[in-house]
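Bug report (template v2)

What were you trying to do?
Predict the complex of my protein with magnesium ion.

What happened?
Run completed; filing so the output is reviewed.

Input:
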Amino acid sequence: MNKVLVIDDELGPRESIRFLLKGDYEVFCADSVDGGVAMLREQSPDLVIMDIRMPRKSGIEGLREIREVDKHVSVVMLTGYGALETAKEALRLGATDYLSKPFDTKEMTEAVGRYVERTRMERRRTGMLDELQDINARLVDDLASREQEASMAQSTAEIAHDMRNPLMIVSGYVELLTAQLEEVKAKLGDQLGATDDYLEVIGQNVRRCCDLSHMWQKYGRAKLSEFGPTTLADVIEDVVLGTAPLAASENVDINYDTQPGDAVINGNKPQLLRAIHNVIANAIQAVTPPEGRVQVSCRRDGDSIDVVISDNGSGMSPEVLSHIFDPYYTTKEEGKGTGLGMVITKRIIEEHHGELRVESEVDAGTHVTISLPLASSARSVATTN
Ligand SMILES: Nc1ncnc2c1ncn2[C@@H]1O[C@H](COP(=O)(O)OP(=O)(O)OP(=O)(O)O)[C@@H](O)[C@H]1O
Ligand SMILES: [Mg+2]
């Protein structure tokens, strides 16, 4: 039922309006501006009928206070004889209309009907306007982040591309130097000291840069928003291959088990590669050889598939764990980590309507579970099997 608030210091008009409207409206009455404004806050009526002339605070003051609380509610002023000027002032201050006292019942019922409807329309209109503004703001944000992502992907691909050529040259010269060193070594023997070890480290790291730049070139070019049937085992195999140079340089073994191999999700492969790559890279960096182990496995769990990446490395304290999704949070030494890996992974998994869980214990290791919903066709296979 629509609500009408009557504010009048005189009992007579208050009660006659209540009597007139009570069958069709929920009527609230107050005998002062203060009482009326309190009721306005509490009840949010669809119409206020208010006397202009009241002791203490007048209707004009009341109108100002009402407009501070509610910009849209219709307010009809009741005016006595000779108060036309004040009534006009009330209109200037935002009253909707005025009726003279004593009021005509027909005129009053018609005005109430009309102005209750007006409030409702006004509220609906501003509600829709707010919603439109919200949608617009979200669209603008979305567009900005998409543009940013697209231009980042483009520049990443370009950087990766430009790095590749000089890296290839360095890598070629490292091989030449290694070959020459072998000859020199035969003549000079021990005098060379650890030079060949140094050269090997350089070679290893240049190869690592080549692999990374290849990975970035591949991922950067990928369209970011395309989703389609994606076999998770293929993704994991590619990531394990992609992280092999890193694992080799850190002297870490990765075990992986991609059962069930046929699990299909609705996803974007390049994005999933990035997401899982980041977690496996963290695991590799957390363990110490020779006992260091990284295990990657898949488990079907109802309508989703869990990819679990476990390591027996350093683990994390609750304090570190509480920060791993903060952008730029890293515990790695300068130049080793950007602190963006887990942030990117979390965003990608959420874009796939998945979940990311991390359990960790200091000196025991870490389990990261990436839970992704199976594609609907794969789901029915899962239930019939
Ligand atoms: N498997 C793990 N074991 C131990 N600590 C981890 C593990 N994974 C993440 N962390 C902790 O979380 C922090 C944030 O990880 P994140 O991958 O976001 O950044 P990063 O690895 O430091 O840098 P980046 O990935 O950008 O190279 C790490 O610095 C590390 O302290
Ligand atoms: Mg990382």
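What did the reviewer find?
The pocket of magnesium ion (ligand 2) is lined by residues 278, 281-282, 337, 341 (CB under 6 Å). Residues 3-103 form a domain with the Rossmann fold fold (CATH 3.40.50.2300).
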